[in-house]
Each structure stands twice: as structure tokens, then as C-alpha cells.
Amino acid sequence: SGLAAEDALLRAALAPGDHVIVPDDAYGGTFRLVARVLANWGLEYVGPERFEAGTPAIAEAIGRGLRVPVVSAAFGMDRPADLGAAKPDVGAYDAFVTKHGLTHTSPDANYTLASKHTFTGSYALDEVIPEAVILATRTLRGNAPSLHDVTVRFHNGSAEAAAFVDLSPYGYPLAGPVRTAFRVAVTGPRSVQVSIDSLQFGRLGVPADILARAQDGVNAYLATRLAGIDGLRIDAFTFQEGGVHFAGTLPKAYGAAAPRAGDLP
To answer: Do strands 191-201 and 204-205 pair parallel, antiparallel, or not at all (unpaired)?
Structure first.
């Protein structure tokens, strides 16, 4: 029978202690085979009753499977995507900072999502900032525990970004490469709207409802952050091939309070 063949296949591919996910649209006989037969054999599973996108149970189950090297590679989870972006140019970044007389009033290590930033002064800017300079800012700031190996590539009207993300600080034991494509529109002197066109975890596309929540979260974060930057005025912000054209004013000096217990990196 079909279930006999399925049972033989699962026992050949799996071993007691392995972990599987049974989605809510699986054939009922498959679920009963896993829950009532193979579970007694030692197979662990997450079933439909816990199958809610984004729950720790699902993240943990996926994470277990993706720690197997051959599975990790098959799903593109072994390394961030190569976008063909420019290499960070620290020299060009230093020249940019010197040209505009910018100052940084506290160590990079003091910056966290919960830091209280301070901004003073402003200067006018109307130029295209190359990819290599933008990526060098990431290089100089170092790698945060939850986000590293960040690359960005700019096209006319849109951008791509790739990074290795570790969700464990947020309660999800899942880590891997993320890739996204997005656009940005200026909506006010200190506000922009991000539109995420695609979001992938390895080669796995993120469902539309999760993508929408991610977009809402990014825009809420940006609204709060940009509103608090004294000296900022955005007249134009457009992606071009190989860089970003910014016109407006930016703070001349910025700093951050020392990190506090519980701050996210």
C-alpha cells in the first residue's frame, strides 16, 4: 500500500532521534503514521497543532535539520548569497568622513538597538555614495552577534541585501543566511517607506504574511529612529547602479550611550 511504501521510505531515510515537521495540509494517514507508529520508534516531530509560522517549535525543528551539512547546503543555508557587490573600501570611507568633517563621539562597540543616540550639527550633502563606502561602515562597526557578513548591492530603483542572521537572541534557535530585495520611497523630511519585494531564508521563500509583518516592523523601526535624528533632512534618497544618491542634510557628529543590560545587539 501507499502507507507501507511511505513507512519503508521514512525508516530508510530517518533514524530514532531525528526530527521532522508534519504540516497542516499533510495527508491524515501520514500524520497518524508519524504520530502513532514512528513516534513510538523514536522519531520526534512537530505536528499541525503547533504549525504556526514563526513559532519557536517550527524554528527549532527547521534548525535541527539545517544543522546537517548536506541538508544545509541543499537549502542554501551554509553561506550568505553572493550578490556580486563591491568590496568594502575603508580608505574611501575614511576619505568621505574627512571630506565632510564628520566626528564619531563614542566607540562603535557602544552601539545597540536600544542605545540612546545623540546628534549634533548638520551639513548639506548632495552626491552618490558608492557601495564600497556604505559597506565599509559595516566593516568598521564590526559584527553584531545577530547579524554579520552583510552585503548590499544597489540597482536603479531597488537594492538587494544578504546577511547571516542568528535569531537566537529573539527566542528562535535558528540561524542562517537571509536575502532580500527592496525599494525605498521618501515620505517626509525624516521619513521613508520601505517596500520589501522578496525575502528568502537560504533558498526558502518567506510566506507573504511573514514578509508583510517584516516590512511593517522595518518601517516602524525606521519611523522611530529617523524622527529622532536632529540635523536630518531627506530631500532625495534613490538607489542607483552601484550606490545611493542622497540629497539633504545629515548630522555632523553622532554618538551613543553605553550599552545597558538586556540591550539587543
So the answer is: antiparallel
What is the arithmetic mean of pLDDT over 242-259? 82
| pLDDT tens readout for residues 164-216 | 887 666 665 567 788 899 999 999 999 999 999 998 887 777 788 888 888 99
Identify the burial level of 34 via C-beta atoms within 10 angstroms of its C-beta, where 0-12 means exposed, 13-18 middle and 19 or more buried: buried
- Asked if 196 contacts 208 with a C-beta cutoff of 8 angstroms, the reply is no
Instruction: Report the 3 state secondary structure along the chain.
Output: CHHHHHHHHHHHHCCCCCEEECCCCCCHHHHHHHHHHHHHHCCEEECHHHCCCCCHHHHHHHHHHHCCHHHHHHCCCCCCCCCCCCCCCHHHHHHHHHHHCCEECCCHHHCCCCCCEEEECCEEEEEEEEHHHHHHHHHHHCCECCEEEEEEEEECCEEEEEEEEECHHHCCCCEEEEEEEEEEEEEECCEEEEEEEEEEECCEECCHHHHHHHHHHHHHHHHHHHHCCCCCEEEEEEEECCEEEEEEEECCEEEECCCCCCCCC
Closest CA to 158 of 137, 184, 176: 184
Q: In which band, very low, low, confident or very high, does the pLDDT at 44 lie, cut at 50, 70 and 90?
A: confident
- The structure's pTM equals 0.66
